[in-house]
Amino acid sequence: MLIVGLGNPGEEYLFTRHNAGARLLEHLKNVWEFPDFKFDKYNEALVSKNNHHSFIFPQTFMNESGRSVSNTMKKENISPEQLLVLHDDKDFSFGEIKLQKDISSAGHKGVQSIIDTLGTNNFWRLRIGIGPVPEFIPTEDFVLQKFLDTELEKMPEIFQSAKLKIEELLQKKNN
């Protein structure tokens, strides 16, 4: 399975809400003891693989994630059904997690880029709640804000719940 963590590249975005998917991917890499990420120029992504799965963190900006995902899928002969995208979701309360397939992007530009590039939404998504967006802050500003310290303290628990959901999915796909 190809597991993609969405976010924006660069230190300034590392702990922003929009990088929740990339942070979860990093967590999974460490917990599952995958090799360190290496930059793959062809895929425009940081890549880590074991014998069963590939992890990628596109190094394009969020709204161009589809190019990196598509290149990787072609290179590794992966079908959309074998794709899991980890990403933030402003429409869910902070910490809420949903694993879904065959749904629209719900306005998420990174996911929309993947749908547009692949020509399908027939792939798995793990949506990590970062909301609600305060009324007085534009969404594009909110998602680029850093997590609050109180939110960062809850991330290990959220990531553990996400890991369990992903492991359930992987187990089903292997049976």
Text of the CATH class:
Alpha Beta
Helical stretch tally: 5
Number of domains: 1
Q: Provide the succession of SSEs.
A: EHEEEHEEHEHH
Written overview of the protein:
With 175 residues, the chain is an alpha/beta fold. It has five helices and seven strands; from the N terminus they run βαβββαββαβαα. It has a single domain, classed as Peptidyl-tRNA hydrolase (Rossmann fold). Helices cover 37% and strands 23% of the residues. A seven-stranded mixed sheet has the order 2-3-4-1-5-7-6, sandwiched between helices.
Which descriptors apply to this entry?
175 residues, 7 strands, 23% strand, globular, single chain, Rossmann fold
Summarize the model shown.
By secondary structure, the chain is of the alpha/beta class. It has helices spanning 20-31, 65-76, 109-118, 139-142, 149-174, and strands at residues 2-5, 38-40, 45-49, 54-58, 83-93, 97-101, 124-131.
